[in-house]
Amino acid sequence: MRGLQVQVLLGVPLSFFMFIVFEGIDGTGKSTQVRLLAEALTARGLEVITSKEPTDGPHGTRLRQSAQSGRLSPQEELDLFHLDRREHVENLIKPALARGAVVILDRYFFSTMAYQGIRGFDPIEIRRINEKFAPLPDIVLILELDLDTALSRIGVRDGQGNEFEQRDALQKCHDVFASLDDDFVHRIDARKSPEEVHSDVIRALSSIQFI
Ligand code: ADP
Ligand code: MG
Fold first, then answer.
1. Ligand 1 pocket, mutate which of 23, 28, 32, 177 (most atoms under 8 A from CB)
2. Is the CB of 209 under 6 A from ligand 1?
3. What does residue 70 show for φ and ψ, rounded to 5 degrees?
4. Closest CA relative to residue 133, chosen from 173, 93, 103, 73
5. Closest ligand to 190 CA?
6. Cβ distance 19 to 184 under 8 Å?
7. CB-CB contact of 143 with 190 (8 Å)
8. Which residue range forms the structural domain that includes residue 108?
9. Which of 22, 83, 148, 172 could form a disulfide with 59 if both were Cys (CB 3.0 to 4.6 A apart)?
10. Any domain includes 90
């Protein structure tokens, strides 16, 4: 069952779970916002688990290494993402949600739709495969930023060798994120300062009556 689960007795929330996902292209501030949100929710007395994809598990590690040491074939890469996510779901996400923790992820299957979409797979088909084993989040916060600002934040300067490739790839990812129209998808203007973006994240969570 999906959605915010709040049992209220005499106005006191007894238990709830919440599955929050940050998405957006590189440099939009996902890692920064995961940290700020985790701190804020922990300060409110909630148990918070943060994690990222690809994970630090064996499949995720292979994916990270392949980014440096020569890329895998598109199919090998997609298979590894799915193996990594299956483990993530079974070993971390589901157990944490089941005991009432808040789970905050830095990327999830929406990133696979975007980045493996670039490599030739149909994003809709990727989503269909993932929804068979990966629970839907309660909220997906998409951090939106223009390509120039995103590239400058991650240190890609004009004229650098792979800039055009990176630009083209990021634009396509941006387009996949832009195409998501689920009710649980909220878009956040990531051009503002980290603190202002954090306030907008809190506002988005308030709008679904989480906090
Ligand atoms: P992501 O995880 O989406 O790639 P990061 O959180 O790692 O993004 O941020 C990328 C870089 O931009 C980091 O150097 C970070 O300090 C900086 N940064 C993050 N958020 C902002 C912001 N709102 N404004 C300016 N710089 C930011
Ligand atoms: Mg990051």
1. 32
2. no
3. 105, 125
4. 93
5. 1
6. no
7. yes
8. 6-54+100-206
9. 83
10. no
Query: Cis before residue 95, ω within 30 degrees of 0?
Result: no
pTM of the model: 0.91
pLDDT digits (tens, 9 = 90+) for 125-177: 999 999 999 999 999 999 999 999 998 998 876 555 567 778 888 899 999 99
Give the integer Cα–Cα distance in Å for 139 and 182: 10
Tell me: the pLDDT tens digits for 12-36? 454 467 999 999 999 999 999 999 9
Which CATH number characterizes residue 126's domain?
A: 3.40.50.300
Surrounding residues of ion ligand 2, Cβ less than 5 A: 30-31
Provide DSSP, 137-162. PSEEEEEE--HHHHHHHTTPPTT-TT
Q: Which two tokens stand for residue 198?
A: 């954090």
- Which residues fall within 8 angstroms of residue 73, CB to CB, at 6 or more apart? none
Atom of ligand 1 nearest to the CA of 22: 3
Q: Are 190 and 199 in contact, with CB atoms under 8 Å apart?
A: no
Q: Could you tell me if the CB of 82 is within 6 A of ligand 1? A: no
66 is a domain residue: no
CA 152 to centroid of ligand 1, rounded, Å: 10
